[in-house]
Amino acid sequence: MSLEEAVLGSVPGETRRVLEGALEGRDLRVDDAVTLCSARGPSLHALVAVADHLRRTQVGELVGYVVNRNVNFTNVCAKACRFCAFSRTRRSEEGYFLPIEEIVRRALEAQAFGATEVCIQAGLAPGVDARFYVALVRELKKAAPAMHVHALSPEEVKFAATESGWSFRRVLEEMKDAGLGSLPGTSAVVLDDRVRARIAPGRITTAEWIDVVTTAHAVGLRTTSTIMYGHVETDIERMRHLDLLRSIQRQTGGFTEFVPLSFVHEEAPMTLRQQLPDLRTGPTGDDVIRLYAIARLMLGSTIRNVQVSWVKDGMRQAQWLLSCGANDFGGTLINESISTAAGSAHGQLQTPLALRRAIRDAGRVPFERSTRYDVVRTFGPDAGPDERHPLDGVEDPDATFGSYERLTRDERFKFRLPVAAP
What we know:
With about 425 residues, this protein is of the alpha/beta class. Helices cover about 45% and strands about 10% of the residues.
C-alpha cells in the first residue's frame, strides 16, 4: 500500500490534492499552504505524515545540535517592541551592559565546556556603534580563534549602520573581516509591514530586513531564517513569509536553516497592557505542528534544515516535532535570557546528553554539528560509554553560568552612560 493510499484516503479533496502535489515534488503555492493551515484531525495526521516522509527523503535520519552559548551583552534598548519583555530603558535599575572583556570571558568559559559557537545578540544601547561590534568580534576571535562567532541580527546591523553613518554592506564587510562567522536571522517576526507596525512599530522594515540578509549572503556570510508567530498575524501572512524566505534562498542560497519561534506571551508588554484586542496567547500545540509540517513541505527543497526551539515549545513538543518535518534540535544555549524574560519556563540550558536522549527516543540518530552544519562528532543509534561531554555534568546552570535575573541585579555591570566604545 502506498503512502497516498494509507494516509490520504480519508482526507478531503482539496487538502488531498495539495498533499499529493507535495509528494510529487511540486512547489507548495501560498494559497495551497493556506489550505493546509486548516488541517485538523485526519487531515493534520496526513500533513504530518507527508512532512515526515519529505524530511526523510530530503535529509535522512540524522538530527543535529550545536554546543553553543548565548551572550546577550545588554538589555538596554532604544526600541520598545510590544512583544519584548527582555529590554529595559537606559534609566532602568535593571539595565545592564557587559564590557568586551566579560563577553570574551564568557566565550572562553563556554569553550572550556566544549562549546564551538558563541551567539551574540543584545539590545540597541546608546553609545554602541559599528566600531564597537567590530572590536567585539575581533577580540573574541583573538582570544578564541576556533570559536564560531554567530552575531548581529539584521536589526543590530541597521542600528550599527545608522549610528556610524555606514552602509549595511560596509558594516557586514567590516564584521566579516574582524572574524564574524554568520548572522542570526532574527528580528524577522513576520515579514509583513502591517504586522510589524502593530507589534513592533519603528523596527526594521521588511525591505530593510531583506536588504541586510541578502547583502550578508552576497559578502559570504550565511544567516539563519526565522518567524515569530502566534500573535496577530493571519494564516496568509505566515505563508507569504515562508514564500519570501524560499524566494530569497533560491536567489542566494545563504540560509542555513529555518527556525519557527512561538510567541511567548506571558510577560510580553502587549499582553500585560492589553494593547491589542485580537492578540493571541501564542500558538496552540496543533498550530505549532501545522507550521512545522507546512514549513517542510514549502521550504524543504531549498532550506533543508528545519530547527525546533526547545526554548519556546519545551522538550516534549520539540521532540515530537522531529516527526513533523524537523531535523535539527538547535543548541545547548547555556544562557537563555530573551524567552525566559518573556515567561518561558523551559530553562536556559539543555545538555548534549539530554538532546541525544530526546533524539534517540524519537527514533533518530544524533550528531553534534557546527554552526554551518558540518559534522563535529557522530554518534550511533544507541548510547555508547565514550559519549560524555563536559556540559553533561552541569546540574545547576544558573549557579554555574549565572542567570538573567542575577545579571540585572549585578552592580558590576549596571548600564551607565557613556558606554566606552573602543
